[in-house]
Structure formats: structure tokens, C-alpha cells
Design brief:
Its cofactor is Zn(2+). GO terms for molecular function: alanyl aminopeptidase activity. This protein has about 900 residues and is of the alpha+beta class. Among the domains are: about 190 residues, Immunoglobulin-like; about 130 residues, Neutral Protease, domain 2 (Orthogonal Bundle); about 100 residues, Immunoglobulin-like (Sandwich), CATH 2.60.40; about 130 residues, Peptidase M1, alanyl aminopeptidase, C-terminal domain (Zincin-like fold). The protein is about 40% helix and about 20% strand. An eight-stranded mixed sheet has the order 6-5-9-3-2-12-15-14, with no helix packed on it. The chain has a six-stranded mixed sheet with strand order 29-28-31-26-25-33, with no helix packed on it. Strands 17-18-19-21-20 form a five-stranded mixed sheet, covered by helices on one side. Strand 5 and strand 6 form a beta hairpin. Helix 17 crosses helix 18, helix 20 runs parallel beside helix 22 and helix 24 packs antiparallel against helix 25. It is globular and about 90 Å long. The chain binds (3S)-3,7-diaminoheptanoic acid (B3K) and zinc ion (ZN). (3S)-3,7-diaminoheptanoic acid binds next to strand 20 and helix 2.
Length: about 900
């Protein structure tokens, strides 16, 4: 298992043989499913006439192979590593194969596997080769006809892509359904589901008047948890028609919920398969956050029907072509149907914490990587989220109207094709006339660019000179970086008027909110006719995925916090202000000096709490301190304990100083309305629950009483979960223990609620968190084979920074044990769980040694390609 060779973008070759039509028959059985395939194949016009035929295939038992009806014997083909080769084939031919596979043994959850007794598939990126011998690459597109045969009693429902065209009874209590998908597709979009499933059905009429049947298939007990997903799907379908002019193209659109799934969901043509956590919601079982996540993932997968399925990727290096674009599309959708500023704040807060950390670590890679060992490792924040930021910059650079013309051109020109990032960007350049040559570096260069900014106001001439200097730090394999084209949206806020001043640059007016283009390593922008001294508001709405440093004083930040016309930058000013105070406190903690709270932060918070704000969700964001993970990202060396102590100190100081204001905020935002995941209600619940968290930070009797009452009232999961979390994360064990027990017993039957029950316990800051993980791993509801459980328990614990980074190394050792076990069961999840250990360079010597020790112990095992690739980078 050690011979893991990288694949390089440079070595791309078009496929020598294409498949025009694929027919598959599945005779389902848990341990011995028989897959018969019939492929209509043709040689590529440019391929040599003696080009051998290679078909991918893994974990397959070959029963028979025939070419144009003649059975091949063992001398006619060769079983080679990763597949099968036939030395000579005609220009056109039909290849038939029969293989056997064992879905019940498939714990990797790639290919055909079983989840809670149900059969389902996951083929992206390279899972189809675990189903049958096939040219399993995205630039091979075929129409599919699929017959699924199953046991009538155990699998009454048999689903595949497209439209059902035939069904019937067979001997031995079996039946079949045949499906046809008229749209040519790559193998990674193939899907099959079979089992005892129940459906909720609805309909949608497209803008051109076609009726589409919409179905969500679930286990019977979850039938009451589909309404929100269905409503979200219909909203997404309408939005894509209105915003991109994209209409759905089949008569049937199906979503299936499965319990065991490596990621959130999968956009298989006409048959999306979802992790049940990404589709099921009910006010009693799902939080507001979960409702919003479901809405965005349902939309994301639906949007892939155009950005991904109709136009797909030439090869997996182009993954961000579909993922970055589709994330951008789902972000805009969520912003449109919810609170837009909150959506942007949430996305950027997450991005700056998690993607910046990826960019700064040993697995840093460009939005378009140039090599990989295991593509599954590249479903990353860089490909998805940074990719989306790059598309957002493109949209802002050429303007929304040109961007729409560019996307129309892209969808029209490349419909039914497998293309590249250049093809996409070329459409944008063509419609806008913009020169995007330098911009393309965003796709090729890894690492987070940093901008050092400096500004000077000249009273005499009424000029403001803004100097920007950019640099991108070295990343593995990329020691030197070129300057990027960075759009910086900005305003100059007058210190006297408190208003955005008019921007005049080289005689040209940019309005009051403009974009300047940083292209050189260093550039000075001189704004003229600036009537009063301004505070610059830079990188508005996070106009580029960079770190921007400007020597703001605390007074200037407090000023922007109340005066900036850009909602995102108002929030960011608050975060920057809090960071300055936190930096002082981290230093004080390290030096053993008494901690003193910065009164300017307290006063800024007081102002926020006493000024009415329309969007309560924005207020909740503004009252939320930077997370420990974000603070850590800002430090040269991470001091886990000092960060935790400093942040707790700020939380408690704010709560003590503003206790009455928080209490009033809590009381004023009670509601007896029936639960609905509307932006208004969500905003109200968010501020209320933020206030409650502050009150619980200071052992306040009234706060504690409210917390217990909120738990007992049992109004909705958002409120219950927050109350339970605050109790369990407090010192009030006599209240927490019975609440936890009651909650665990009440929801023992619901895996998604039990996931939350696990997470709440292992994220507590008290020093017994690790022992609780060990204990809970023995709980009957826990299983290493279920990725949701692994994430809820182990993944959540690794985010519990003070406990995961315990100085006795037990946190690291526990994670290493889990990764070693998962490496055998599920390499994809194993490699993902490994991430926190790869960031060892950021910590002190003692922790570095312990983390490396854990990595070395994993390295000594026989490793899957997934874990091998990550370990090699981490220890390089
Ligand atoms: N395209 C899928 C991800 C597939 C995961 C492969 N290991 C989900 C999505 O981005 O929509
Ligand atoms: Zn996607």
C-alpha cells in the first residue's frame, strides 16, 4: 500500500476511447451484488489506432468479459494495478462485463455500499470504478440505462438517475425497475438507491411551463422532517431561473437521505443523495443553524445541475470550476433569501479561520492544484471557499450584468462538455473585454496574500495618500510568489461628518464606495478633493480573500464600528478592536501580569447594546468575540492557554460590566410565536442566546434561572441546545447532569439529535472533556463506521482547543488511535480527521514534539493513499 504515485495536471491526455452509451444491470445482494455492464465505445479521432484500452476497476471480482459478443479469455486482457487493459480493440466496439461486489463490506462509503440496510452509491470522484470496469474520468460522458433488481420485501424502492421507463416482477420475490437518463454524464454522477424508503412529493412548474415532480425519499420515521428541504428546493429552482436563467431539465428530481455519508451531499443527476444531517429538519430536532445549512446545501446540489452536471470538469484538477462557482451561487442564494450581511459575516468569519489556517499549513495548495496523490483529499476549503471568493472577485471586477452574460455564454458554449477553468474565465473576459491574465494567478498560487496598508492625509492639499504593499508567503513547493490582481473596495469616512466622502482618483470619480486595483507589489493611490481627515474603510464586504493590515488606533476602530456605511466592515471593526484588547491580555497572561479590561471595548459594546439595530442577527454577530481558533490564526505562535484565558476574561468582564444590558436584551427578545426559520425569528433567537451566554459566563443567578427555564420550556432545538450547552459548559454539574440525562434518553432514537448530545459534552472547557470522549466512544449510539458520529464526537473534541492540546499529549494520542482505526475503515474520513495534527508547526516545542510523535505513530502503519498523502506533507 506504499506505492502512492502523484498525478500531474501537466500530464493530462484526452481519453483514447469514449463511451457513448452505458447499460448497467444490478442484481442486488449485500455480500454478492452482480453488476453487468454493456458499453458502446469508440476510439477518439486523434488517438493512435493501436492505443490500448484501459478501464479503471478496484475491489471488483471479474466474472466475464466480452468484446463485440466474443468472450475474452485471460490471454486477451490484463488485470493491472487499478484496472484492466486490452491491448487491441477496434475503432468501434461493444464491451460487456460481469463483476461481483460486496456492498455490505464497503466501509469506505465510496462506490456501492449499505447504510442502515439501504443500498446507496457515492461515485465522485473515483467511486464508480468500485462498481464496474469503466473509463472512470469526468471527460468521458455517456447516456445511461440502468436496471436495478432487488428483493421486493427488503428493497421495495429501486432508484437510479433519470426517468423510470419499465418495472416488473421477477421470480423468488424479486422485482426490477429500469431507469434512463437522456443527458450524457460522466460516471461520477451515476447514482443508485434501493431500500425501504418513503417519499414526500411535490411539484414545480418551470419558467417555460414544464411540470417537474419533486420527491424526497427518507426512512419512515423521518417523513415529518422534509418540509424545509422541499421548500428550500423550490426556492432554489426559482432563484436559478431568475438569477441565472437556468431551468431544470428532467421531469423528476429526487433527493434521498442516508445516515452514512462522507460529506454533506452529492449532486448525482436527477437523484441527489444527501447525508441525513444535510436534509432533515424539525423545530424540535434541528437548530436554526441546521435549518440554514440544509437550505444552502439543497440549493448547492441543485445548482450543480448546471454548474457541474450540464457543464462539467475536464479533469479533477479543475474541481473548483464546479465547486467554487457553485459555492458562490449558493452563497448569493442564501444572502438573497436571508439576511445578506449576516450571511457574508458568517462566511468570512469561517473562511478567515479555517481556510487561512489551511493556507498556512503543510497541506496548502492552489485553487487549482497541479498535482495530487488522492483527489479525495482535495475537497477542501481552498477548492470550495477560496474558489468561491475568486469567482466573487471576478463578478465584482466585471460587474454583475457582464457576469450574467458571461455565465450565459459559458453554459451555452460548453453545454454537455467537460471543460477547464480557462474556458470559464475566457467567457468572462470575452463578454466584458477585461484583461484577466494577471487575475489567473489566483488559481495557481497557494497561500493567503497579505496587504500592508498605510494612509496619510494632507490637510494643505486636501489629499489622502493610500499605500498598499502586497506579499504572499511561501507555501510548500511554491517559494516565490508573483503579485496578484487584488480588487480593494473602500470608502473614506470623514471624521467630522461621519459620512463616506467622495472618492476622486486621478481625476476620476469613484462615487463614495469604490474599488481600486492593486496589481503591483506596491502602489500608492492619491485621492484628491478630500475635504476632511478620513478614516479609511478598507476591503469592504471582504472584496478579496487576503489579510489586510492597517495601523488603526482603537479610537478609529470604535469610530468605524458606529459610522462605517458597510455593514461587513462595521462588524470587522469590532472584531479588530476586540483583537487589540485580546492581544494585550494574551501578553499579560504569558507574562503573569494582572489582566485589565480595555474600557474602550466595554464602551463600544455598551453602545451596541443600547442603540436599536434593525437586523438582530447582525447585532448577535457584533456581540460575538472572535473564536479561539480565529485568535490563534492571528498569533505568530499559538499559546492555547493564554488565548483561552484572555478570551474568557473579556467575556466575563463584558458580562460583569454590562450585566443589566444583557439581561434586558434577553428579556426583550423572548417570543411565544410558533417556530419558523425566518430571518426575523432567527435574528431574535440569536441575540437572545448570545445574551444568555454572557450571563452564564458570570455565574449570575438570574441568568442561570433563565437558562434552566429555557431548557425546561423545550420550545425548539435552537433554544434547548443553547441552554443545555451553557449548563454543561458551566460548573453547575448538579443541573447539567440531569439535563443531559433527560435529553439523551428522550432522543436516544434520533441519531441526528444524539450527534448534538455528543458534541455538547466533548466541547466543554472543563478538564474532563477527554475522559468524556473515551467514555462516550463506548456509548451504544456511537460508531466509528458512521462519519457523522466521528465528526460529532472526535471532530468536535479536536475543536476543544484547551483540552485537545493537553500538555500530557493524551488528546493527540486519542486522535492518532482513531485515525489509525479509520485508515482501515474509511480513508477519506481518516485523512480529514488528521487535519488538526498537521498544524503542529504553529505550537510551542513541547506540543510540537507530542504532535509529531502522534504523526510518526500513524506513519508507521500500512497507510491508505489518503492518509499517506497528508502524513507525508505534514512531516515533510
Ligand atoms: N460534489 C460533492 C462532493 C463529493 C465528495 C467526494 N469525496 C458535493 C458537493 O460539493 O456538492
Ligand atoms: Zn459542490
Amino acid at each position: 500500500m506504499s506505492d502512492h504515485q502523484p498525478v500531474h495536471l501537466q500530464e493530462y491526455q484526452p481519453p483514447a476511447y469514449q463511451v457513448s452509451h452505458t447499460e448497467l444491470t444490478f442484481d442486488l445482494d449485500p455480500a454478492a451484488t452482480r453488476v453487468s455492464a454493456r458499453l458502446d465505445m469508440t476510439r477518439h479521432p486523434e488517438a493512435a489506432s493501436d492505443a490500448p484500452l484501459f478501464l479503471h476497476g478496484e475491489y471488483l471480482t471479474l466474472h466475464s468479459l466480452a468484446l463485440d459478443g466474443t468472450v475474452l479469455d485471460e490471454g486477451d486482457y490484463r488485470l493491472v494495478e487499478g484496472g484492466l487493459e486490452i491491448a487491441r480493440v477496434p475503432e468501434r466496439f461493444v464491451l460487456e462485463s460481469v463483476v461481483e461486489i460486496a456492498p455490505c463490506e464497503n466501509t469506505a462509503l465510496e462506490g456501492l455500499y449499505q447504510s442502515s440496510g439501504m443500498y446507496c452509491t457515492q461515485c465522485e470522484a473515483e467511486g464508480f470504478r468500485r462498481i464496474t470496469y469503466y473509463p472512470d474520468r469526468p471527460d468521458v460522458m455517456a447516456t445511461f440505462k440502468v436496471t436495478v433488481i432487488g428483493d421486493k420485501a427488503k428493497s421495495p424502492v429501486l432508484l437510479a438517475n433519470g426517468n423510470p421507463v419499465e418495472r416488473g416482477e421477477l421470480d423468488g420475490g424479486r422485482h426490477f425497475v429500469t431507469w434512463e437518463d437522456p443527458h450524457p454524464k460522466p460516471s461520477y454522477l451515476f447514482a443508485l438507491v434501493a431500500g425501504e424508503l418513503y417519499k414526500v412529493e411535490d411539484g414545480f412548474t418551470t419558467q417555460s411551463g414544464r411540470d417537474v415532480t419533486l420527491q424526497i425519499w427518507v426512512e419512515e420515521e423521518n417523513l415529518d422532517k422534509t418540509a424545509h428541504a422541499m421548500a428550500s428546493l423550490k426556492r432554489a429552482m426559482r432563484w436559478d431561473e431568475e438569477t441565472y436563467g437556468r431551468e431544470y431539465d428532467l421531469d423528476l428530481f429526487m433527493i434521498v437521505a442516508v445516515n452514512d455519508f462522507n460529506m454533506g451531499a452529492m449532486e448525482n443527476k436527477g437523484l441527489n443523495i444527501f447525508n441525513s444531517a444535510a436534509v432533515l429538519t424539525h423545530p424540535h430536532t434541528a437548530t436554526d443553524q441546521a435549518f440554514q445549512r440544509v437550505e444552502s446545501i439543497v440549493a448547492h446540489e441543485y445548482f450543480h445541475n448546471w454548474s457541474g452536471n450540464r457543464v462539467t470538469c475536464r479533469d479533477w484538477f479543475q474541481l473548483s470550476l464546479k465547486e467554487g462557482f457553485t459555492v458562490f451561487r449558493d452563497q448569493c442564494f442564501s444572502a438573497d433569501v436571508n439576511s445578506a450581511p449576516v450571511k457574508r459575516i458568517e462566511d468570512v468569519a469561517f473562511f478567515r479561520t479555517a481556510q487561512f489556517a489551511e493556507d498556512a499549513g503543510p497541506t496548502a495548495h492552489p485553487v487549482r492544484p497541479d498535482h495530487y496523490i488522492e483527489i479525495t483529499n482535495f475537497y477542501t476549503l481552498t477548492i470550495y471557499e477560496k474558489g468561491a471568493e475568486v469567482v466573487r472577485m471576478l463578478c465584482n471586477l466585471i460587474g454583475a450584468e457582464a457576469f450574467r452574460r458571461g455565465s450565459d455564454l459559458y453554459f451555452e458554449r460548453f453545454d454537455g462538455q467537460a471543460v477547464t477553468i480557462e474556458d470559464f474565465v475566457a467567457c468572462m473576459a470575452e463578454v466584458s473585454g477585461a484583461d484577466l491574465t494577471q487575475f489567473m494567478r489566483w488559481y495557481a498560487q497557494a497561500g493567503t496574500p497579505e496587504i500592508d496598508a498605510y494612509g496619510e492625509y494632507d490637510y494643505v492639499h486636501g489629499e489622502y495618500r493610500l499605500t498598499l504593499r502586497q506579499r504572499t508567503p511561501a507555501t510548500p513547493g511554491q517559494p516565490f510568489k508573483k503579485p496578484l490582481h487584488i480588487p480593494v473596495r473602500l470608502g473614506l469616512v470623514g471624521t467630522k461628518s461621519g459620512q463616506d466622502l467622495r472618492l476622486t482618483l486621478a481625476g476620476e470619480s469613484l462615487g463614495t464606495d469604490g474599488v481600486i486595483h492593486l496589481r503591483e507589489e506596491e502602489q500608492t493611490f492619491v485621492f484628491t478633493e478630500v475635504a476632511e481627515a478620513p478614516v479609511p474603510s478598507l476591503l469592504r464586504d471582504f472584496s478579496a480573500p487576503v489579510k489586510l493590515h492597517f495601523p488603526y488606533s482603537r479610537e478609529e476602530l470604535a469610530f468605524l464600528l458606529t459610522h462605517d456605511s458597510d455593514g461587513f466592515n462595521r462588524w470587522d471593526a469590532g472584531q479588530r478592536l476586540a483583537m487589540l484588547a485580546l492581544d494585550d491580555l494574551i501578553a499579560a497572561h504569558r507574562n503573569g501580569v494582572e489582566k485589565v479590561m480595555d474600557s474602550r471595548v466595554v464602551e463600544a459594546f455598551r453602545l451596541l447594546l443600547t442603540t436599536p439595530m434593525e437586523d438582530k442577527a447582525v447585532l448577535a454577530e457584533m456581540l460575538t468575540l472572535p473564536s479561539e481558533a480565529y485568535i490563534a490564526e492571528q498569533q505568530p505562535l499559538v499559546d492555547v492557554d493564554a488565548i483561552h484565558a484572555a478570551r474568557e476574561f473579556v467575556r466575563q468582564s463584558l458580562a460583569l460590566a454590562l450585566r443589566d444590558e444583557f439581561l434586558a436584551l434577553y428579556e426583550d427578545n423572548q417570543s411565544q410565536e410558533a417556530y419558523a426559520p425566518t430571518p426575523e425569528q432567527i435574528g431574535q433567537r440569536s441575540v437572545k442566546n448570545v445574551a444568555l451566554a454572557y450571563l452564564m459566563a458570570i455565574d449570575d443567578d438570574q441568568g442561570l434561572a433563565y437558562c434552566q427555564a429555557q431548557f425546561d420550556a423545550n420550545h425548539n432545538m435552537t433554544d434547548v441546545r443553547q441552554a443545555l450547552t451553557l449548563l454543561v459548559h458551566s460548573e453547575h454539574n448538579h443541573l447539567a447532569a440531569p439535563a443531559l440525562k433527560a435529553f439523551g434518553e428522550k432522543w436516544a432514537h434520533d441519531p441526528l439529535v444524539m450527534d448534538q448530545w455528543f458534541t455538547i459534552q466533548v466541547t466543554r472547557p472543563q478538564s474532563d472533556a477527554l475522559e468524556r470522549v473515551e467514555h462516550l466512544m463506548q456509548h451504544p449510539a456511537f460508531s466509528l463506521k458512521n462519519p457523522n458520529k466521528v465528526r460529532a464526537l472526535i471532530g468536535a473534541f479536536a475543536q476543544n482547543r484547551i483540552n485537545f492540546h493537553r500538555l500530557d499529549g493524551k488528546g493527540y494520542a486519542l486522535l492518532a488511535d482513531v485515525v489509525i482505526e479509520l485508515n482501515r475503515l474509511n480513508p477519506d474520513v481518516a485523512a480529514r480527521m488528521l487535519t488538526p495534527l498537521t498544524r503542529w508547526q504553529r505550537f510551542d516545542d513541547a506540543r510540537q514534539a507530542l504532535m509529531r510523535q502522534a504523526l510518526e505513530r500513524i506513519k508507521a502503519e500500512p497507510l491508505s493513499a489518503n492518509v499517506y498523502e497528508v502524513i507525508e506533507k505534514a512531516l515533510a
